[in-house]
């Protein structure tokens, strides 16, 4: 396993201070000494080492909302920017909501969104994570990121592959890998988020419960048709994500319904090469979409292919990306 894929798993306790620059929405830049939440426990006086006092949180700005709750930008101890995910009372079982946090406690990698803490002793329940100021990769590509060059897009893809290679090494599957579930911090720094559907697999395959719903256009055919999920179905989704990157957030299979996609893909259809996409990158997409799941590449292989994409053989793409 490539050592770059693995992060230090040493357990840290307590708090630490860091100095950082924050660019505010009004353009002002502040230099602060802040308390940085150590990602393995902020409190040891409660039943859960991840539990913190909700009074230490300040809600700053709503980032989004959904059927089950909201996501806010906030401050911890009035110093550290965090993201706060809330559960609306009565919308779902708190155990199901906290299942995502339970998974995040176990997974530690620089390319995965890091859990900071939880507030579970009373409602509403909160999950507190690191804040990614630029939001989802999908929105970023459709907005501020429209000027990104190919080399920058490939670098983002390599970062995502690195995070997925770590999941692969830990026998976890994501099951919802897409640009909407990748978050962007500083320009070109991306991390995988939304582990609500993630699962630990004891064998090579996971069978989803009857009635489970999945995003058809990102889901491998064996998963969409037979609910058979594996790390190789995540590889298929990664190939779809690559098309989102090079098209700046275009929806996959444009003009096709979910039913049409299911039928056509099962009968061998694959999306054509996107405009301005170099042939070697499209070849990687096609490898991800191999009908035989076992013949799809590993994420470790995808990581090094993307990290080494701009070699001498592909130097013309590197030069073209500069303009």
UniProtKB/TrEMBL annotation:
Quote any Pfam family the record assigns. Answer: PK_Tyr_Ser-Thr
- State the superkingdom: Eukaryota
Specify which residues bind ATP according to the UniProt entry for this protein: 85, 180
Annotated residues for binding of Mg(2+): 181, 194
Q: What class of enzyme is it?
A: transferase
The terms under GO molecular function for this entry are:
ATP binding; metal ion binding; non-membrane spanning protein tyrosine kinase activity
- Xref: InterPro entries: Kinase-like_dom_sf (IPR011009), Non-receptor_tyrosine_kinases (IPR050198), Prot_kinase_dom (IPR000719), Protein_kinase_ATP_BS (IPR017441), Ser-Thr/Tyr_kinase_cat_dom (IPR001245), Tyr_kinase_AS (IPR008266), Tyr_kinase_cat_dom (IPR020635)
Describe the location of the Protein kinase domain by residue ranges: 57-310
Might you give the EC number(s) for this enzyme?
Answer: 2.7.10.2
Magnesium found in the keyword field = yes
Name of the protein this chain belongs to: non-specific protein-tyrosine kinase
């Amino acid at each position: 396993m490539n050592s770059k894929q693995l992060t230090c798993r040493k357990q840290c306790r307590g708090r630490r201070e860091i100095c950082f620059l924050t660019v505010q929405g009004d353009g002002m830049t502040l230099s602060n000494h802040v308390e940085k939440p150590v990602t393995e426990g902020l409190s040891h006086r409660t039943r859960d080492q991840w539990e913190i006092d909700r009074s230490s949180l300040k809600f700053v700005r709503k980032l989004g909302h959904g059927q089950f709750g909201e996501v806010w930008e906030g401050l911890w101890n009035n110093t550290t920017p965090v993201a706060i995910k809330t559960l609306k009372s009565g919308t779902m079982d708190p155990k199901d909501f906290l299942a995502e946090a339970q998974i995040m406690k176990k997974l530690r990698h620089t390319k995965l969104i890091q859990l900071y803490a939880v507030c579970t002793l009373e409602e509403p329940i909160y999950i507190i994570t690191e804040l990614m100021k630029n939001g989802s990769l999908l929105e970023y590509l459709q907005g501020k990121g429209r000027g990104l060059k190919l080399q920058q897009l490939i670098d983002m893809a390599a970062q995502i592959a690195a995070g997925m290679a770590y999941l692969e090494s830990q026998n976890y599957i994501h099951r919802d890998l897409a640009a909407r579930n990748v978050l962007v911090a500083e320009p070109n720094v991306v991390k995988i988020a939304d582990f609500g559907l993630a699962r630990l697999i004891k064998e090579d395959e996971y069978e989803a419960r009857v009635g489970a719903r999945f995003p058809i256009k990102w889901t491998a055919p064996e998963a969409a048709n037979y609910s058979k999920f594996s790390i190789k179905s995540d590889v298929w989704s990664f190939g779809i994500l690559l098309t989102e990157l090079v098209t700046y957030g275009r929806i996959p299979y444009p003009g096709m319904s979910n039913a049409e996609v299911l039928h056509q893909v099962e009968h061998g259809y694959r999306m054509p090469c996107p405009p301005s996409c170099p042939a070697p990158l499209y070849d990687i997409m096609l490898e991800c979409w191999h009908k035989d799941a076992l013949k799809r590449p590993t994420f470790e292989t995808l990581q090094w292919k993307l990290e080494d994409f701009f070699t001498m053989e592909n130097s013309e793409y590197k030069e073209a990306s500069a303009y």
